[in-house]
Specification:
Layout lengths: L12 H15 L47 E10 L9 E7 L12 E5 L4 H11 L6 E3 L5 E3 H7 L1 E2 L5 H10 L3 H11 L4 H4 L4 H7 L7 H6 L2 E2 L3 E4 L10 E7 L2 E4 L2 E4 L1 H9 L7 E7 L14 E4 L6 H13 L5 E7 L2 H4 L3 H10 L4 E6 L9 H7 L1 H9 L3 E6 L4 H17 L3 H13 L3 E5 L1
Parallel strand pairs: 13-14, 13-16, 14-15, 16-17
Antiparallel strand pairs: 1-2, 1-12, 2-9, 3-8, 3-12, 4-5, 6-7, 10-11
């Protein structure tokens, strides 16, 4: 029987054989051996009986690619809990947040950060709509080029806490009052940035009431709402399907109005109230903030306040991997009785030997203010011994003051206990940085 269908035809061998036979008969292509008198047998005749049913095609299972969630395509993580870490007497509000990563295929390492997309404060959004004379239902375009009601775009798409040049130019063009138009133009040209400091979109709209920009134009002139990055406070070896954060809630009063941190109050005031709420997240790798590859290496961690977050992850990781290197933590805050974050966990690690040393500095518990850098200098001789033994030194937290003070204390220890002059201490600290034995996660 001649082969009519090619080998690469999309049929099984059984289907291809049946079709070759059927087409050969239909087209008169089948051949028979010659008769004894040299005559050929007549061409085969088509039979009216139905052909046999073709062999069933094997079902094709659709491939399910593993989703890759990232900054542009974040994962909707379910909120497991948001619980207070500070006592009632504390002047601060710090929350432990746990999110469920089940089904995300997201992985992270101790030291990484988590990116989180927040929503803006609902009350602030309503005040902005009121100042614009808008209902909130006007169709507008989001930064992702989607058309949604203005209220939704202000809640989830645009930054309403910062005022950019585009918005100021637009408002200057639409201000009916010449004086207001001139002031707005001056602000847009960067000549009065001090006035803008600490002010948001609502402040500007209320200060210049003669502007008449349309809602869609106003929103198009805003900056996109950016994700917030938080140091991860858990090890995935200890919590395979979860990620933990330690978040200080930001609230303050300025320019005659109460101000709120966008992401921190989103988690503390709104997410907590909705059971099963999901937040959009992605992993932000921090390759410059990693535990030593050798688990025998000792580490020194300086993390006051929420700066303790990655060191909680470090200690969980070292415990899960069975690392034998010694761990020393410096922690500080205002008051021991209400600001000692993760106190039970830290004391348990100290008791079972996971922490070789825990030195605390609670600045408001005595007349003289004591900080983590104070404790470093007090224990400078021992700290120098650890460094001489190859310890890695880590700092996490406030970049403006704490990180600088800790760095100065490290230089002081190198001079006092290493017998170095100022230049030698500087060279020594630089060598620690170059060899990745001095790493910082500061903000």
């Amino acid at each position: 029987m001649p082969q009519i269908l090619p080998e690469n035809a999309p049929f099984s061998p059984q289907q291809r054989a049946w079709l070759d036979g059927f087409l050969s008969g239909a087209l008169g292509l089948g051949s028979s051996p010659p008769t004894t008198n040299g005559a050929h047998s007549p061409a085969p005749q088509l039979v009216n009986s139905p052909p046999p049913a073709p062999a069933p095609l094997a079902p094709i299972e659709p491939r399910k690619p593993t989703p890759i969630y990232n900054r542009d395509d974040p994962f909707p993580a379910r909120v497991l809990h948001v619980r207070a870490l500070c006592g009632e007497d504390s002047a601060k509000d710090v929350r432990a947040v746990a999110l469920d990563l089940t089904g995300s295929a997201l992985t992270y390492e101790a030291g990484d950060a988590l990116g989180l997309y927040p929503e803006n404060d609902h009350e602030l959004v309503e005040h902005i709509l009121e100042a614009l004379g808008a209902t909130g239902e006007e169709p507008v375009v989001t930064p992702e080029s989607r058309i949604v009601p203005a209220r939704i775009a202000l809640l989830r798409g645009y930054d309403i806490t910062r005022v950019g040049e585009d918005l100021l130019h637009l408002l200057a063009e639409t201000a009916h009052d010449e004086s207001e138009a001139a002031q707005l133009k001056e602000l847009a040209e960067g000549d009065a940035l001090d006035w803008l400091s600490g002010r948001d979109v609502l402040d500007v709209l209320r200060h210049f009431p003669s502007v008449s920009a349309a809602p869609d134009e106003t929103l198009a002139a805003l900056m996109p709402l950016q994700p917030r990055l938080y140091s991860i406070a858990s090890s995935q070896l200890a919590f395979p399907t979860e990620v933990h954060l330690t978040i200080g809630v930001v609230r303050y009063h300025a320019n005659e109005r109460q101000r709120k941190g966008v992401a921190s109050t989103f988690l503390a005031e709104r997410v907590e109230l909705v059971p099963g709420q999901r937040v959009s997240v992605f992993v932000h790798p921090s390759p410059g903030f990693r535990l030593p590859a050798d688990g025998h290496t000792p580490i020194i961690m300086v993390g006051p306040g929420t700066g303790i977050a990655p060191f909680r992850a470090f200690l969980q990781e070292r415990g899960a991997t069975g690392a034998t290197g010694k761990n020393w933590l410096f922690f500080g805050d205002q008051h021991a009785h209400c600001d000692f974050l993760y106190r039970e966990e830290l004391e348990e690690w100290l008791q079972n030997g996971s922490l070789a040393r825990l030195d605390t500095a609670f600045s408001r518990d005595q007349d003289e203010k004591i900080y983590v850098q104070t404790r470093m200098i007090e224990h400078g001789a021992q700290l120098w011994d650890w460094l001489e033994d190859g310890a890695h030194f880590y700092v996490c937290g406030d970049a403006k003051r704490m990180a600088k003070d800790v760095d100065n204390a490290l230089h002081h220890i190198a001079r006092q206990h290493g017998g170095m002059d100022e230049a030698g201490a500087k060279t020594y600290v630089q060598s620690l940085v170059k060899s990745k034995r001095y790493q910082r996660d500061v903000y």
